[in-house]
Amino acid sequence: MTITGIVRRVDDLGRVVIPKEIRRANKIKEGDPLEIIHTTEGILLKKYTEHNYCVFCNTSTEIELDGISVCTHCISRLGKLMKEEK
Ligand SMILES: [Zn+2]
C-alpha cells in the first residue's frame, strides 16, 4: 500500500474523483468497472475483472482474503518474511 497524501471530498451524490495520475498509474480508463471492497482498513477500489489477480505479482489466483487476492507463491514469501522478523 502506498499513501498518496491526496485528499478528495465526497460530493452530494456520494461521488469521489479519482485523481488523473492515480487512474493513469492503475490503467483505469473512463467506463472501466471498479469493484468496491470494504476492508478492515477502509475502502479498496479495484479494477473489476472476472479473474482475480495477486496484488503483489499480478498472477491469476483464486485465493482471496478480505477481498484482496494473493497467490500461493506470495503467501509463501510473506510467511518467510514474517518468520525472519521474529
Ligand atoms: Zn503473487
UniProtKB/TrEMBL annotation:
This entry's Gene Ontology molecular function terms read: DNA binding
Q: Which domain of life is it from?
A: Bacteria
Q: PROSITE patterns, alphabetically?
A: SPOVT_ABRB
InterPro entries, alphabetized? B_subtilis_Trans_State_Reg (IPR052731), SpoVT-AbrB_dom (IPR007159), SpoVT-AbrB_sf (IPR037914)
Ranges of residues in domain SpoVT-AbrB: 5-51
Question: What NCBIfam families does this protein's entry cite?
Answer: lp_hng_hel_AbrB
Specify the protein name: Transcriptional pleiotropic regulator of transition state genes
From the broadest rank down, the organism's phylogenetic lineage runs:
Bacteria, Bacillati, Bacillota, Clostridia, Peptostreptococcales
